Amino acid sequence: MAIVEVLLNRVGINSLELSTDSVEVSVGTSLHVKIINYGAPTHATLKTEGAAYTNFTYENLYVEAESEIKIDILASANPGSFDMQVISGYGMRRSAFTINVIIPEPEEEKEAQKPEPVKKQKQKKTIQAPSINRTMIILINLVAPIVGFIVLLFWILAPSAVNNTVMAVILYIIMLAGIIITWRSVQ
Length: 187
What we know:
Elements: E1 2-8, E2 16-18, E3 22-26, E4 30-37, E5 42-48, E6 58-63, E7 66-72, E8 80-88, E9 93-102, H1 107-112, H2 134-157, H3 164-186
Parallel strand pairs: 1-4, 3-9
Antiparallel strand pairs: 1-2, 4-7, 5-6, 5-8, 8-9
Helix pairs in contact: 2-3
């Protein structure tokens, strides 16, 4: 049974990792795609245009922790390959793996042949992010909005004590910092 694992939110918000670049599946069998979510519940989409090999075209999944989907390969399919796209983060992250459809050799021929050395499938290299507690990430992302709110309150409560231009620049810098922090956390 061929299995491909898809890891969501493991190294950051909306991160997407695949266990392999390609997988071999025999005609008339199934490929199992196991989706493991390490973060908040999210949507993941599987999509392919391999109509010559499978009846599967599209599936949008809501993944809380783990989900598995079975993709049947047609018994009438010819050898070849097609790509399966995995999309997460509302279209922000996309990755794909190749499904190589093969016709298995008859049992008699398998016994007569010498076993060949097993080739290792290429694993995608992933960059390990430092282990940061999920609560710590949320607190870091809340710093800029909280500081901005405090400055805004000060500006509203004591308008005569503060130069309006200076306060506008300070608020702009705090908002920019919040945008940068949010953008970096998505990567």
